[in-house]
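TL;DR need structure tokens for one chain.
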Amino acid sequence: MADIIPFSCTHCGSETFTASSPVKTYKDFLGAVCAKCGAVVKEDDIKKKGLKIADDLVRDAFKKAGFTD
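>> reply
TL;DR here they are.
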């Protein structure tokens, strides 16, 4: 089962994009266009989102284990 990861436009915050083909991997999402402002999704945008997700998961794991910032 695949996880759905919300992705918002780095320019306007919209979560609606148009891709040239069905998105099955992150590479399929490269070049997608924001339906609201027309910004194009770049690899750096996807990497930043991935790092944010990883950081949040690690922080949550430490909090559950009783560690604090």
